[in-house]
Design goal:
The structure holds 2 protein chains of 2 kinds.
Chain A (H helix, E strand, L loop, with lengths): L1 H21 L4 H20 L1 E14 L18 E15 L10 E10 L2 E12 L6 E9 L20 H6 L4 E10 L9 E8 L19 E11 L5 E12 L8 E6 L5 E7 L1 H5 L11 E14 L2 E16 L17 E16 L5 E11 L27 E11 L4 E12 L16 E9 L1
Parallel strand pairs in A: 10-14
Antiparallel strand pairs in A: 1-2, 1-18, 2-3, 3-4, 4-5, 5-6, 6-7, 7-8, 8-9, 9-12, 10-11, 12-13, 13-14, 14-15, 15-16, 16-17, 17-18
Chain B lengths: L1 H18 L1 E6 L4 H14 L4 E5 L3 H9 L5 E4 L5 H9 L4 E15 L7 E3 H8 L17 E5 L4 H9 L11 E3 L2 H10 L3 E6 L8 E6 L11 H5 L6 E9 L3 H12 L1 H10 L6
Parallel strand pairs in B: 1-2, 1-3, 5-9, 6-7, 6-8
Antiparallel strand pairs in B: 3-10, 4-8, 4-9, 4-10
Helix pairs in contact in B: 2-10, 9-10
The chains are: A mainly beta, B alpha/beta.
């Protein structure tokens, strides 16, 4: 009995003592401490962002087996197909904001997973100066800083694909290199003006399984100076920019041709440098081909009674070193061992985008042209030339494309696009297969889910 | 049969009560007004449940974009970038002005300075004027308090008073209006700006001139209504049109004469 009483007394003392200790802290302080701990933990987790989108689509072409800039060529005998155009997942880690309120480093890795395989789209680090926040250095695989369309996300773009011009000049959009961005922080009066400029390998980034390691010492300079402003009543946003590209690649033991005319005045490629002259020079002393682009871009968006309207345009001109069979510059890690054909080109695109009132529907109209060789046109393309001159061919054909589309936004994550691209090629009575317009229009029905 | 009718009625009532649940999020300036609206409305409408959360205009609009609020409160107009994001998300919305607010400039009660021109305020907040003696006051360093960048009040003050010039990096950004009042009341050389409804006797209201010092006007409902006080702004509710049915009864109440009387009582300016 005595033992039981003693134990009960001890237990009561412990209980009382425990209660006294509990009552020492204000419950609100305990709650505030817990909330602060949870907030700190959440802040750390919020620094890692995972985002992505998938674009399954069905396409139908006017005729089977056509070459297309709408997700690649149609196989022989095929005029319709299902495909996953893009399957992106992006990991982005941003460091904690510094004393001045901005993060000083960022890490980005983005993959593209489709039925064709796995490809790296972005793999870069970005550091920002911690003192004034004006200077950012990005190094790795990132978008080329040229114009608007190249860097505009495919998940946001109103048409299913970039124009023919962007796809030919900047295949894969990305590039391995380093770029400096100079722009005032959001609190700066100069935040509206920005410069992106850097040096890149110049080989692009091909896609799944394509090695684009550099094979020459030549580095390409790419720069974009742009400005963005909004009016005081926050109903109009306008922006514009100018771009410059200066690069090329090493000329090995190959002939270099430029546009000229044969003895009777017919346009064709004439020799500029002979293979034996180029080959006679030591590898590390050889000159490089000229790859120069000039670009201007602009867009304006305004919110009015009819809904949000956006007008957008971009024009690019320059000189491109390609081959007899392709306009493109090298897009892999192999030295360019075929004759180089230099072409002067120009091209442009224009968008008219109208949100229908405040509904989830949006109308899109796009016109673009691309002339890969401005020195030759019409029946002159493919015309026979003398023995000292090289004939022009299908690479030199100009294209005009009109695209019309309707976009429906199911919700914040899902977007459905129906789009019809009407492609019209330049015709020439001297070029087999191009005496009339090729039936290569393409209809695309795409669903996009974004997270 | 009678039981069935009663059961159906009960289900209808419970569904109806559920539809009265609203979340209102955003501007700290609009917060006390919305809290009072909600309090009175919930007493009037049985089954209505309205949760009001502050955080700033930008926070409210982001919440509307993320579909986590029925109404976004804002003390500034929605920005173009925000409009474009709403469009990209396929989210149509409506804008309603629910009241007006005068923005008061306040200093510590011990500060001798009682009036300032817009240009002087611009000088203080852009860092060109750093001592009260430059303004006829004591030899004392100016401590300028501003709101956080996500605040509509921050944006409005920048547009109206600073004429879109940038705040000085020496300005101290406070997370809420209450924090500005507290900081100004406890710091001798402090200056801040708050919605008229927040002004109390712990701070001193400063008369402001927008005509280069010819006329100085103190913030008050009367001066704002007769348009002699210049720093006045509309207060907004934004809501997705998809939620209009649920939001409309509450909005109708706010825009009614009863709702507008609350606006007046709390210290804001009625629409008419």
């Amino acid at each position: 009995m005595k033992k039981t009483l003693t134990l009960t007394a001890i237990a009561l003392m412990f209980l009382f003592n425990a209660k006294a200790q509990e009552s020492e802290e204000n419950p609100l302080d305990t709650l505030a401490r817990s909330v602060a701990a949870m907030r700190d933990e959440l802040n750390v987790k919020n620094r890692l962002k995972i985002s992505g989108y998938i674009q399954p689509q069905f396409q139908m072409a006017d005729s089977a087996g056509q070459a297309s800039f709408n997700g690649g060529n149609f196989p022989k005998g095929v005029d319709n197909r299902f495909m996953v155009r893009r399957g992106r997942v992006k990991f982005q880690y941003t460091s904690a904001p510094g004393e001045k309120g901005w993060a000083t480093s960022m890490y980005v890795l983005q993959f593209d997973v489709t039925e064709k395989g796995l490809a790296i789209k972005d793999a870069y680090v970005k550091i920002t100066d911690p003192w004034i926040g004006w200077f950012n250095l990005t190094a790795g695989v990132s978008d080329r800083p040229f114009g608007f369309e190249v860097g505009y996300s495919s998940s946001m773009r109103e048409s299913p694909e970039r124009g023919r011009m962007s796809q030919l000049l900047f295949p894969g959009e990305r590039e391995v290199g380093a770029k400096l961005t100079i722009q005032g922080p959001k609190s700066s009066n100069w935040n509206w003006l920005a410069l992106d400029a850097g040096f890149f390998n110049g080989n692009g980034i091909g896609g799944a399984g394509i090695d684009v390691s550099d094979w020459d010492n030549t580095k390409d300079f790419i720069g974009h100076l742009y400005a963005t402003k909004t009016n005081e009543s926050q109903t109009v946003k306008y922006s514009g920019g100018i771009s410059y590209y200066n690069g090329g690649f090493r000329i090995d033991s190959v002939n270099v041709y430029k546009m000229g005319a044969d003895g009777s005045g017919v346009g064709g490629f004439i020799i500029d440098t002979k293979a034996e002259d180029n080959g006679a020079v030591a590898l590390d002393s050889r000159t490089h081909s000229k790859r120069v682009y000039y670009g201007i871009d602009g867009q304006v968006s305004f919110d009015w009674h009819a809904g949000m309207t956006t007008l957008r345009g971009e024009f690019i001109t320059g000189e491109q070193p390609g081959s007899a069979v392709t306009f493109k510059s090298p897009n892999n890690n192999s030295p360019f061992n075929v004759d180089i054909y230099s072409r002067k080109f120009n091209g442009a695109y224009f968008y008219f985008i109208q949100n229908i009132m405040s509904s989830p529907w949006q109308f899109v109209a796009k016109y673009d042209w691309f002339d890969p060789n401005t020195d030759v046109k019409g029946d002159e393309i493919g015309k026979a030339v003398d023995a000292n001159t090289k004939q022009t061919n299908s690479v030199d054909i100009k294209y005009n494309t009109i695209g019309l589309g309707l976009v429906y936004r199911w919700d914040a994550n899902v977007k459905i696009t129906a789009y019809y691209d009407m492609v019209k090629n330049e015709t020439s009575n001297n070029l087999s297969g191009y005496t009339a317009d090729i039936p290569d229009n393409v209809f695309t029905l795409r669903m996009q889910v974004k997270f | 049969m009678k039981k069935l009718v009663l059961a159906l009625a009960a289900v209808t009532i419970s569904v109806s009560a559920y539809s009265q649940k609203l979340v209102v999020k955003g501007s700290d300036t609009v917060l006390p007004l919305s809290q009072k609206f909600a309090e009175v409305y919930m007493k009037k409408s049985s089954g209505a449940s309205i949760t009001v959360i502050g955080g700033g205009s930008g926070v409210g609009i982001s919440a509307m974009l993320d579909n986590t609020t029925d109404i976004a409160m804002a003390s500034r107009k929605m920005k173009m970038d925000e409009r474009m994001k709403m469009q990209e998300a396929g989210r149509a919305f409506k804008e309603v002005v629910i009241a007006y607010d005068a923005l008061s400039v306040v200093v510590n009660p011990n500060n001798k300075v009682g009036k300032l021109t817009r240009e002087q305020l611009e000088g203080i907040y852009t860092g060109k004027i750093t001592n009260w003696k430059e303004l006829g006051g004591e030899d004392m360093k100016i401590v300028a308090y501003a709101r956080e960048t996500s605040s509509g009040t921050y944006e409005f003050f920048k547009e109206s008073v600073l004429k879109r010039k940038n705040y000085s990096s020496t300005c101290l950004n406070m997370p809420a209006t209450g924090a500005v009042i507290q900081a100004v009341s406890q710091t001798k050389g402090a200056i801040g700006y708050v919605g008229l409804a927040y002004v109390n006797d712990k701070v001193k209201d400063v008369a402001v001139s927008y005509d280069g010092g010819k006329n100085y006007v103190t913030a008050s409902k009367e001066n704002a209504m007769n348009k002699t006080y210049p720093i006045v702004r509309p207060l907004f509710y934004y809501y997705p049109t998809s939620r209009e049915k649920g939001v409309k009864p509450f909005l109708d109440f706010i825009l009614s004469s009863e709702g507008q009387e609350i606006v007046d009582k709390i210290g804001y300016l009625k629409l008419k």
